[in-house]
Amino acid sequence: MIKHIARKEFTDVVRDGRFRWCAALVGALLLVSLGHGWVQARQAQEELAAAQATARDHWESQGEKNPHSAAHYGIYAFKPRLALSFVDEGVDPYTGTSVWLEAHRQNDFLMRPAQDATAAQRVGALTAAQVLQNLVPLLVILLTFGALAGEREQGTLRQLLATGIGRRELAVGKALGVAGALALLLVPAAVVGAAALVVGSTGPAASPLARGTVLAGVYLAYFGAFVGLGLAVSAWARSARTALVVLLGVWVVNGLVAPRAAVDLSKWIHPTPSAVEFAHTLEQEMAAGVDDIQRPDRAAFGERLLAEYGVERAEDLPVNEVGLYLQESEEFGNRIFDRNYGALWDTFERQGVVHEALAVAAPLLAVRTLSMGLAGTDVEQHRHFATAAEAYRRDMMRQMNLDLAENSRTGELYTAGPELWAEVPPLQYDAPTLGWVLGNRVLSLLVLGLWLAGAGLLAARRVQRAEVA
Amino acid sequence: MSEVMTMEAPTAPAAVAAAPVLEARGLSKRYGSTEAVTGLDLRVGPSEIYCLLGPNGAGKTTTIHLFLGFLEPTAGSVRVMGLDVAAEPLESKRRLAYVPEQVMLYRNLSGLENLEYFAALGGTGSLAPERLTDILVGAGLPPDAVGQRVSEYSKGMRQKVGIAIAIAKEAGALLLDEPTSGLDPKASNEFSELLERLRDRGVAVLMATHDLFRAKETGTRVGIMRHGRLVNEMSTDEIGHADLERIYLEHMHE
């Protein structure tokens, strides 16, 4: 019975010229955005690889110099793009993908494409994620608003129900019919996406296919929730026009109002300082210290060192006092950075939790969070890389300072060469695993699951109660 | 005769008394303060064509919708082949076929596809396209229209597809709500012949109609409804055309 209903719905929808036009448009946008995203991602990955090689080359070929000068010369670290980033570029255009690692400073990320975008690019940019998150639900609405209300208006519903079919079967059959029509659009896109993953993946191995499969599941659950919602409203509304207006209202709230409101609300609950305020606080604390984190006193440090080695003069020390003091200063700076960046990241995390919880009002919020997470372009994975880059910077500075301390004496002019620069290993960054990503996104998964189940139950309930005429 | 019959209790044939296919007992339906149907007792047996007459708003369509389970009775009960419609809504509908006043079909499907769909849902199973075509043509649809999309059909053609849907279901009971509305006289005659053939096969027919002539010609019994009540019921064998018209008008002017 369900099979017959689904087949008829599919045929009816596919023969509808309005659907064909809309589906062709959305399908074309989806394929173009996937293709464009893939080309961009591949180009960016190639540029990144070239820049990384250049940066390393510059580091290794900087010539003879004091290790501390080399620490100031620094090196760039680049956040690798995961294979799925072509689907959803997430926060990368805003947070940046490269960071300059140098002595004494934990720098902000650079290379923010959003900074370089023209006004037209900012307004007109369309990613596959945006098509999937906003336009496909619109298509689902167009497919479902008349499912019950339209049949009631046309008078076919009473003839249908007079055959003796159950309303639950009717709801399931209609949902499957709509799903079949959507599959005409989504299957080719999924095939193109999978082919792009398999053929063109240049990013690091972070389970791209597993991530892609989960991403597909997330979007299917999202569309399923919209199908349920569309059927429920169509069964409830007195007319197809009312159903359409209500569902378009839901779409506007979900896609336009909720994301803005969620950002503002999470920022209002957990405020973050402006970039200027943050930099000012950092500067102040680096200069004067704060609470129990105080800049080491040079004289006291020198005396402690003389006492430790039992010598009278710094020149008699078996180590270079400057190198050790630089490291001590570095560690002071690290504690200030940990305190300020840690607090900032923690606030971002709390904002993220509010954002995820608000998905109970709009499933897009859950899907967007999961989509960016699986594409490796969310704030958490930016933090993951920033933390790895900062740990690398600290190791590198320690290596430079200790080389200075151990291979020279206080007051001596010392230079190191390419051997030392080559001893600094390149940054080996392991992107988080799928389990790590999903573990961070349990709330979003749960809320999306609730949307799917809730919309399904609501549809079953409303179809059960739908008036015949 | 009419004066005697006006308020008399319905006299049911022996077969009906034994095993009615369609049965309403003390059936009432109220919308707020409006009584759409009040205390209706009705029985239609096998091989019987029962025509419900009455003006608009008399309760004919409501009665049919109560048999279909589309409406919940305020009081009383409805049975189809012994099944309580309220208790077994799906099973009872599977034993019924229904043709509304305006048959509405899926515009993007052909007449044949519409019939195939409704026949499959009605539990007939998958009938061969040739058999479905025969049913459509048998119901009066021109052969060249069978494969055309319904969006190109006239109202009369849609009505014929609706009749074909009812025939294909091979149900024991047939509910008709102004089924000849929109049909030309020739098609109406063909429809009457079709009903007679179904009656001969033992099908019980309950038909709401305004057409007194056809009710007398095709029906085996006639019931007149007014303000939700069955005010008269008679066998068509007992009366002539003129009598039926006179009795009907008398009730309408009461």
Main attributes of the structure:
heterodimer, A: mainly alpha, 73% helix, elongated, B: 254 residues, Rossmann fold, six-stranded mixed beta sheet, four-stranded antiparallel beta sheet, 38% helix, globular
Please give a structural write-up.
The complex is a heterodimer of chains A (469) and B (254). In chain A, 73% of the residues lie in helices and 3% in strands. By secondary structure, chain A is mainly α. Chain A has one domain. In chain A, strands 1-2-3 form a 3-stranded antiparallel beta sheet. In chain A, strand 2 and strand 3 form a beta hairpin. Chain A is elongated. With 254 residues, chain B is of the alpha/beta class. Chain B has a domain at 1-95 and 205-254: Rossmann fold (3-Layer(aba) Sandwich), CATH 3.40.50. Chain B has a 6-stranded mixed beta sheet with strand order 6-7-8-3-9-10, sandwiched between helices. Chain B has a 4-stranded antiparallel beta sheet with strand order 2-1-4-5. In chain B, strand 7, helix 8 (185-200) and strand 8 (204-208) form a beta-alpha-beta unit. The model of chain B is unreliable at 1-18 (pLDDT under 50). The A-B interface holds A 1, 4-5, 8, 11-12, 15-16, 154-156, 158-166, 468-469 and B 65, 68, 70, 90-98, 100, 102-106, 108-109, 113, 117-118, 120-123, 162, 165, 169, 175.
Q: Could you give the order of the helices and strands of chain A?
A: HHHEHEEHHHHHHHHHHHHHHHH
Percentage of β-strand residues of chain B = 15-25%
Oligomerization status of the protein chains: heterodimer
**Net shape of chain B:** globular
Q: What is the correct CATH architecture of one domain in chain B?
A: 3-Layer(aba) Sandwich
Reading side by side through the largest sheet of chain B, how are the strands ordered?
6-7-8-3-9-10
Please give the radius of gyration of chain A in angstroms. Answer: 29 Å
Largest beta-sheet characterization of chain A:
3 strands, antiparallel
* SSE class of chain B: alpha/beta
**Structural class computed from helices and strand pairing of chain A:** mainly alpha
